[in-house]
Design brief:
20 strands; 3 domains; about 20% strand; alpha+beta; five-stranded mixed sheet; four-stranded antiparallel sheet; Nuclear Transport Factor 2, Chain: A
């Protein structure tokens, strides 16, 4: 929905700029028609499994960097991970231990980080949409009920504005029984001004008593409402109301609804006056002043009716345009059309993905090759890696030849054994592979390998191989890059961490103090460097904690848990862990451990 909101906002601003720049210089009907672009852009096309065409001119392309940063913050900051162990952060721990107790008292601030904001926003949107939907239905139901309750039939008019005096055609249910289509006209003093309303049986024109008693006022009022009928404005009013209900939170949508309703009236004024001379235009203007009621009631925006309500600004605008009778230039029309076309290009397209189009067969073949490469690397299969390298020099950056003519690569630890990796295909010739290096300590850290592949007659070969290691996280940017796709659950190390905390030997000296404090546990397990603790939230009942760490380039949130340890040999034996473990947001509270 974010792309719809952003693109539609830009589109609304462009149309508003066109309107106020070229007001009176282009056909009001065209001006009114421009708002249909907004309606089309507000359609949830992505929900229909459809995709906008890609373009470098897209608004979303310009906003991609910012959107990517926000999206990365909302996802990457919640990832669970554990870089290598072994670095002692004495300086950092000494500094933060002074702050910890004070920040615990302000844990309500950090509690914000544990809230599922996506669910909160969705709930608020649904409640708002339901509330506005009920208001929309009530406004129109109550309005129609009041009109029907107190009304008096006046006459029936043809679509040319001429009255039909044959009483046989005046029955409300028989408006189309004659060749000449007609609409009934009723008098109702529940109105402030004439309007066109649709009931279950069809459209109806309503006028007030003072309008019905003045032949000239009645004539112009009926002509005006018939223009609304021919333009299908009742349908557009319903669409406008539906868009407001769906996007009730969007202030620019409300502005667009108000201005488009005003443009609807300008279009009808233009249609009525199209064949009038200057004197008749002035007469229409004077009568319109008497017909229009100045109001600012927001219910008018939601009414599926063409009522003549205007605020002071809108009324002034209409009077000026009616008095003005300038010939519109074709060059101005061309400029507006070009601007509207560019606006559509900006807002009805999506950002390009920069991924080359490849056939399904080629895509599968390339995917299979990258999996084969990652499997071989994880298994330290040096021969397979050698065969997949384009040249000898590349292989020697990864492994070496043995004296017996064989191939060798890698070490026992740390290493991404058990095929522990994530592959991100960049295009048809390159991919990022995120390996999760493990040690027996146990710890984990991330290494990102970027391979570039060429294809020849024998198949795919790796031509370039670049590495970036994240065995120390010293910025938010590194955090988001390293853990873009997450890491294995550290919860599986819970039993080992608990054993380290319970062991009083010199080998595990200090482990208890580190692992039983959520701040130091997060620092140790994540191997953070240079980060400051800016917030702590702990829930002693749910055994959860959220720590907020900050670098100069931003903040991240880390979730931790104290799981229940279950003996695998005897499931009745359970123990509440005293250590803290970095976990995914949707954590598992219990973890099975092997019996001693």
């Amino acid at each position: 929905m974010i792309d719809i909101i952003l693109s539609s906002s830009v589109l609304i601003l462009i149309i508003l700029a066109i309107r106020f720049t070229f007001l009176g210089k282009i056909n009001p009907k065209m001006q009114y028609g421009l708002w249909s672009l907004v309606v089309l852009r507000m359609l949830p096309i992505s929900w229909l499994n459809s995709k906008m065409p890609e373009s470098r001119l897209s608004v979303m392309h310009a906003a991609k960097a910012v959107a990517g940063t926000i999206h990365g913050a909302s996802e990457a900051e919640q990832l669970i991970f554990a870089p290598k162990q072994g670095t002692i952060f004495n300086d950092m721990l000494s500094e933060d231990s002074i702050k910890t107790d004070a920040m615990r008292n302000a844990s309500a601030l950090s509690f914000i980080s544990s809230i599922d904001w996506q669910l909160v926003f969705l709930t608020v949107w649904i409640i708002g949409a339901v509330a506005f939907g009920l208001w929309f239905l009530w406004v129109n139901f109550n309005f129609n009920r009041q009109l029907i309750k107190k009304r008096t039939f006046l006459m029936s008019v043809g679509l040319d504005g001429e009255p039909i005096l044959d009483t046989d055609t005046l029955a409300f249910g028989n408006m189309q029984t004659r060749k000449r289509k007609s609409l009934p006209v009723y008098i109702s003093d529940e109105l402030c001004s004439p309007c066109l309303v649709r009931h279950r049986r069809g459209a109806v024109i309503y006028v007030t008593t003072d309008v019905a008693e003045d032949g000239r006022k009645l004539h112009y009022a009926v002509l005006h409402e018939l223009c609304h009928y021919r333009q299908h404005d009742l349908l557009w009013s319903a669409v406008r109301g539906a868009v407001l209900v769906f996007y009730w939170f969007h202030p620019l949508i409300w502005a667009a609804a108000i201005i488009s309703k005003r443009d609807c009236e300008l279009a009808c004024d233009y249609e009525v006056m199209k064949k009038m001379n200057q004197k008749e235009r002035l007469n229409y203007r004077r009568i319109l002043v008497d017909l229009i009621r100045t109001q600012t009631n927001q219910k008018n925006v939601l009414q599926v009716a063409s009522s003549m309500h205007e605020n002071a600004e809108g009324m002034k605008e209409r009077m000026i345009l009616i008095a003005r009778n300038k010939k519109r230039k074709a060059s101005t029309l061309i400029i507006v059309i070009l601007i509207a076309a560019l606006a559509a290009g900006f807002t009805f397209t999506s950002a390009p993905e920069y991924v080359k189009e490849i056939s399904g067969q080629e895509e599968h073949a390339f995917n299979d090759f990258t999996v084969k490469w990652a499997d071989a690397y994880s298994a330290r299969d040096a021969r397979s890696i050698y065969e997949m390298c384009e040249n000898e020099e590349l292989f020697l950056t990864l492994g070496e030849h043995t004296q017996g003519g064989g191939y060798w690569m890698g070490v026992s630890s740390p290493w991404p054994w058990n095929k522990d990796y994530v592959i991100n295909i960049l295009d048809d010739s390159s991919a990022d592979i995120y390996y999760y290096y493990r040690t027996s300590s146990p710890t984990v850290f991330v290494a990102k390998e970027t391979i570039t592949v060429n294809k020849d007659k024998s198949g795919y070969k790796v031509s370039q191989d670049n590495w970036k290691y994240f065995d120390e996280i010293s910025s938010k940017a590194e955090f988001e890059e390293a853990y873009r796709f997450g890491v294995p659950e550290l919860i599986e190390f819970a039993a080992a961490y608990q054993l380290q905390a319970d062991d009083n030997s010199d080998y595990n000296e200090g482990s208890k103090e580190i692992l039983e404090d959520p701040v130091t546990a997060a620092i140790e397990q994540l191997n953070l460097a240079g980060a400051k603790v800016t917030g702590i939230y702990t829930d002693p009942y749910a055994k959860k904690a959220v720590i907020k760490f900050a670098w100069e380039d931003g903040e991240v949130y880390v979730n931790l848990s104290q799981p229940i340890l279950i003996d695998e040999d005897d499931e009745s034996v359970k123990r509440q862990a005293t250590i803290w473990v970095v976990v995914n947001k949707n954590l598992t509270k219990e973890f099975r451990m092997k019996g001693k």
